[in-house]
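Backbone-to-sequence.
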């Protein structure tokens, strides 16, 4: 099973959407497109969208001899999902022999939130990935549960039609 950082984020927000996404059922609404435009227009001069082994990093920076991975988000509303996504990238790099630190960047809010991969965070991430593998491998998607976020979700018609 191929887990990605984006899938970790999506799973944290909605298990059902992650189940669909893993199966290449994806929709983009205007909010997703706005997020992509914000990502492209922010942090000019940085090398963005670094792809390695099916992993896409927003951008990497060398700050005072330390490697920093940045994850750019439109808002801080889903900060826990963004944190787990970034922890996934940090663990992936650690497994490749690269010690890095992370920052969640929210340009519209002028925020940067530091994220470090501690032993505790790594255990939490491993537990989450095990849960994801079990849920995503099921033949049927998780049952839909209405939440406020469903109003703006690109999967809303699929779940609630």
């Amino acid at each position: 099973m191929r887990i990605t950082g984006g899938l970790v984020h999506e799973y944290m927000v909605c298990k059902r959407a992650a189940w669909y996404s893993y199966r290449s059922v994806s929709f983009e609404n205007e909010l997703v497109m706005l997020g992509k435009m914000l990502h492209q227009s922010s942090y000019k001069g940085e090398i963005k969208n670094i792809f390695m082994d099916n992993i896409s990093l927003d951008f990497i920076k060398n700050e005072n001899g330390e490697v920093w991975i940045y994850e750019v988000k439109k808002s801080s509303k889903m900060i826990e999902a963004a944190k787990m996504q970034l922890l996934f990238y940090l663990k992936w790099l650690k497994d490749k022999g690269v010690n890095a630190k992370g920052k969640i960047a929210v340009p519209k809010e002028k925020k940067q939130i530091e994220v470090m991969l501690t032993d505790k965070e790594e255990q939490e991430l491993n537990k989450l990935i095990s849960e994801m593998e079990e849920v995503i491998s099921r033949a049927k998607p998780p049952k839909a549960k209405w939440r406020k976020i469903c109003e703006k979700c690109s999967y809303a018609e699929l779940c609630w039609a």
